[in-house]
Amino acid sequence: MVLADFYKIHGRRLSADGKHLLEISLNPNHSIFNGHFPDRPVTPGVCMLQIIKNISEDLLQSKLRMSAAKNIRFYAIIDPFAHPNLSLELAIKEADTIQIKANCSFDETIALKMELFFHRYTNSI
């Protein structure tokens, strides 16, 4: 797994309005940062998307397949050495599709916001 040992979850709770609030930390020594970028590490956006998917699968106890993504906004660079501790907020709504609105921040800085749509993964073809 590419993201093995990339992040750890340190806390999770459910807010009064049903949002999942998580505290995670990035591993600044992970090999991804050797190439992205040497001497100026930046957390790749696709890795943040994968973290959100992995955590959502854990919360929903189901493998997920992404069907769409919209309103993806990156507001701040996530430097794993300067800001390894992140707050992640997930609002999950399930109907025909699973809609996940995600916000990620460090300190008081919003790093990213996105809206993702998933289907539960099935093995049938």
Mean pLDDT: 94
Overall structural class, as computed from helix and strand content, comes to alpha+beta
Helix fraction by DSSP (H/I, runs of at least 4): 10-25%
- How many domain units? 1
CATH superfamily caption: Hotdog Thioesterase
What is the CATH class name? Alpha Beta
Strand % is over 45%
Overall form = globular
**End-to-end CA span:** 25 Å
Order of helices and strands: EEHHEEEE
In CATH, the architecture is Roll
Low-confidence stretches: none
Description:
- The protein is an alpha+beta fold and 125 residues long.
- It has a single domain, classed as Roll (Thiol Ester Dehydrase, Chain A), CATH 3.10.129.10.
- The chain is 16% helix and 46% strand.
- The protein has a six-stranded antiparallel beta sheet with strand order 1-2-4-5-6-3, covered by helices on one side.
- The mean pLDDT is 94.
